[in-house]
Amino acid sequence: MNFLNSSLRVKLISLSLGICILLGSTSTGILKHIINEQQDGHLDDFSVYSDTLNDSISAQFYERYGDVQAFAMNPDIKSNKRQTIIDALNQYAALYGIYDLIMVVDAKGNLVAVNNKAPDGKDIQVQGLYKKNYANTEWFTSVMNDKTTDAKDKGFTGTYFESVQIDPYTTEVFSENRLGNSFSAAIKDSTGKTIGVVTNRAGSRWFEVAFKEVYKSLKKTDNPSSILSLYQKDGTLLFQYPLKKGSEDVVYDWNRFTKENVSKIENSAIKEMLSGKTGSKFLVDPKTKMDMMVGYDLVSGPKFIESIGWSVMVEDSKQEVIVDLLTAQKIFYFIYSIVMLISVFLAYWFSSILSKKISAISEQLADGSTQVADASQKISNSSNSLSESTTEQASAIQETASSIEEVSAMVKKSSENAQESIVVSGQSRKSAENGQQAVLEMIDSIKKISQSNQSIVTRVEEGNQQISEIVKVISEIENKTKVINDIVFQTKLLSFNASVEAARAGEHGKGFAVVAEEVGNLAAMSGNAAKEISAMLESSIKKVEDIVNETKSRVQGLVVESKSSVEEGTEIAEKCGKALSEIFGTVQEVDRMVNEISLASNEQSQGVSEINKAMNQLNQVTQQNSSISQETAGFAQSLSTQSKTLKNMVDELFGVVNGTHHSTHSYTAVEPKSNKIIQFKPKEKKQTSKVQVIDQPLTKTAGSTDTVVPQNDDPRFQDI
């Protein structure tokens, strides 16, 4: 499984484990480096300890080497009186405390004197020593033959050094094994002749002091298990301290001291030591198989004679030396394990809580994004419906405006006819005046009057017919106004639905709520204008009907009178003047009525002009509504895209929390279809005196008041 596609819990736990392992590995490396540095430091310390032991032994050796020569020059030692010599020897033994026996032998090897008191002042039995001859001993013959252990470059001459052994003389006297060695020098008279030999049988205490001092230093540095050894150059073990772990008492292992030889042991440190090298190293003890830390040094220096061939070794178990480091290492690993367990537990606990919370938030976001997507889809559908309705409304209003323009043209034509009627009426009045002066032309005038009456009747009938058509057109306008009211009601309903959907959308629907409110306000304004138009149309219809009825009634009466006058004109010519007077009065009445018709026509023309202006404003508002509805559709599309982005983010969040393979959420944002913004405007008409009626009514679907949108090639509109 890919780590990047794993769940948040796995990532957090893995991250915690990785950090702990990284820190643990780094700390382990640092700890190992520190332990190695400490081990190297301890190893260097062991080299220092072996060197210190070397210096201490050298210092003691230097003093012991000179002591015997000082004793040999003592006058009491050269005395011929045994007791005097014995007293002097007892004083030396007590004073130095390291010489068990001090023997004075003459030139023939006979014992002249020996101390009879031990260094602690106790009497010792030395009678047996007087019975022996020492002429054949190594120390005696070496001194007498002037074969002393010398190092003239360092100032060592005149003393013979006999290496460490189980001294036969001290062992005999003290009735126990005594480890020691001898320092022997010649006793000379005033002439320089060797008259005897003095030999100091020194106990191993003189170099044990050095071992104890170094061991105390080791013990202070927490190395109580260290072992200090003294070896002869041939590998013989001369001394080892301590033999009991942690004890400062000197214990002698007689089976090993002066008997055990280590030259054949496969030990690199011993081999280097016996070859005269100095240093320190780690090695495995061939006997115990333990890791050891060893420091070794050749006893040398300005106060020691290297030809003696002594070497010292300081050794200890590596575990004992670095026990604190090992303990610290164990504590570190223990604490590190505890920290690892705690870290894993805390990471699991924290990741569980965090995953649950983030999962809950993700679920809420998913639900919210789904609701937003649904809302955006509904808004998009509503916007499309609103756009289509607005487009249809714009078409209907444009058609209504065109019809009102036609009505306006007809009303204007009626006004012109009324003006012509006024002229004709004036001419009739002038003809009546002339008729009073020209009786002879009465018949012709009567005929003209008859013709004029017939023309008036025709004109009046045509006017009545045109006025009826005006009434019909105004009625149609009233019906169109009802359609506008229905459209306004639907627009208000759509605005209300849009407001509801915007409220459901919450923060994302605030902008659309403002658009919906403006659409509602425009719809309200359209409704008010439609109501005002309806009221004006009702008033115009009533006025026109009253005028038509009154005109029709009066014209019918005039026609009856005119016919009667014409029929009786030939018979009662004499009554011509009276008839003319009556005609003159009638013409005046017609003139007054025609003036009233002209005045009403002018008022109608002004009212229709106002209606036309209101319809143009309503057309502009409708065009704005169409543009706003298109913008609303764009907003809905943007909201749908944002909801898709939000859902993708929720998907990614699910992938982070539960892992990519756990994510089961899949969303598809439905993008609303785009709508073409269409603006309708009437084609320009040529100026003409005739009224052009476009016989191209709008079609409607059955059972619906919605107007069908005209086609783009409709001759009444232009697609921009």
Helix and strand sequence: HHEEHHEHEEHEEHEEEHHHHH
Spatial strand sequence of the major β-sheet: 2-1-5-4-3
Number of strands: 10
CATH topology of the largest domain: Helix Hairpins
Quote the average pLDDT.
Answer: 80
Structural class: alpha+beta
Give the CATH architecture of the largest domain.
Answer: Orthogonal Bundle
The amount of beta strand, in percent, is 5-15%
Beginning-to-end CA distance, first to last residue? 60 Å
Total number of helices: 12
Return Rg in Å: 72 Å
The helical percent reads 55-70%
Query: Outline, from the CA principal axes?
Result: rod-shaped
The low-confidence runs, each spanning 5 or more residues with pLDDT under 50, are: 666-709, 716-720
Task: Give the CATH level 1 class of the largest domain.
Answer: Mainly Alpha
Major β-sheet, in short? 5 strands, antiparallel
Number of domains: 3
Task: Throw out a few tags for this protein.
single chain, 720 residues, alpha+beta, Beta-Lactamase, Helix Hairpins, 3 domains, five-stranded antiparallel β-sheet, disordered C terminus
